[in-house]
Specification:
This protein is an alpha/beta fold and 326 residues long. Helix content is 32%, strand content 17%. The radius of gyration is 19 Å and the shape is globular.
Length: 326
């Protein structure tokens, strides 16, 4: 287990476990980069508010990351995100690559701000996924985010095995992954031509599919097909896959959302995918809207940074566990 860090610029009961980071260890340069693809729609892009606190638009900062870190009940959970001087930490043993439409290509060491928004005012699941993976993997880690808002699995990400027209964002996802890998020497000077291995796939999506009856009915099979097709494309027949639950709003939800949740869980329960695919509950990560920055954005977990942090933590821990059983 190793990592190095450098300072960057400036609803239910949950058991919170603090994180401890070893210091002074160095990554073995000869090991290939371990690549993880983070895919989905707007909630994988990341909507967690870091520091915006305008009363009209951000509810006075309730539920943003800065305020979560000041809460004495949860402060230990987040203490690895800043250094002793109060600057945001950047991990140079975990790289991230995210091609956004609004802010261009974002690439560099793991830290805050790797979302579709300009600047460093938002986080997504990638932040804590990266910390969990970086703490456990003794080689360089690369996270490739391929996520776009308002996209369905039924149409936009439709995999080839589902028949019909292949989704344009399925194709775009594969193209962006390949572009990132091709550009490793240019985008990350520390790469040193050590090679790479696609080591895992994290899927966090489902909102758009729940509004279409056919999409709900076919979601399970479409997700199975997606897993098989990306495994074939990347020549990793048992690629570890983590599925994040469509958990917006907590345990209580309308039937259309529950249908997507059941389909997601059923995929991981299939005997042919046992041991290589994991379904991760996220409903416990939801926070009340009046304790969140964006009170009218239930589709985005109301912008609550704690929600996105906990989702990333759960997804990251699950991936680590899958990797340990390979």
């Amino acid at each position: 287990m190793s990592h190095t860090r450098t300072a960057g610029l400036s609803c239910c009961l949950v058991v919170l476990i603090p994180f401890f980071h070893p210091a002074g260890a160095r990554i073995a340069a000869e090991k290939p980069v371990q690549v993880f693809v983070l895919a989905g729609q707007s909630n994988m892009q990341g909507q967690g508010v870091v520091d915006l606190d305008h009363e009209k638009y951000y509810n006075g900062g309730n539920g943003n990351l800065e305020n979560a870190m000041r809460n004495p009940d949860t402060a230990d959970l987040y203490k690895h995100l800043k250094d002793k001087k109060g600057n945001w930490v950047t991990r140079d043993d975990v790289w991230i690559w995210h091609k956004t439409e609004r802010a261009g290509l974002k690439k560099g060491g793991l830290g805050i701000g790797y979302t579709s928004y300009p600047g460093k005012h938002h986080i997504g699941p990638e932040l804590q996924i990266g910390h969990r993976l970086g703490d456990q993997i003794d080689s360089q880690v690369l996270l490739i985010k391929t996520a776009w808002g308002g996209k369905s699995l039924h149409k936009d990400f439709r995999p080839p095995s589902s028949g019909g027209e292949v989704g344009p964002y399925y194709t775009r996802m594969l193209n962006e992954v390949q572009q990132s890998l091709n550009d490793l020497p240019k985008d990350f000077p520390g790469y040193n031509n050590r090679g790479y291995e696609i080591a895992g796939f994290v899927w966090f999506q489902g909102w758009n599919d729940m509004y279409n009856e056919q999409a709900r009915r076919e979601y399970q099979q479409n997700l199975v097909n997606l897993i098989h097709d990306v495994r074939n494309a990347w020549k990793r027949p048992e690629l570890p896959v983590v599925i994040g639950e469509l958990g917006n709003g907590g345990e209580k939800a309308a039937e259309n959302m529950l249908a997507i949740r059941r389909a997601q869980a059923a995929v991981a329960a299939r005997p042919d995918l046992k041991g290589t695919v994991r379904f991760v509950k996220t409903t416990y990560c939801a926070r009340p809207k009046d304790e969140s920055p964006n009170v009218g954005h239930g589709h985005h977990w109301c912008g609550n940074a704690e929600s996105y942090f906990l989702i990333g933590d759960a997804l990251g821990k699950s991936m680590v566990d899958l990797l340990s059983h390979r």
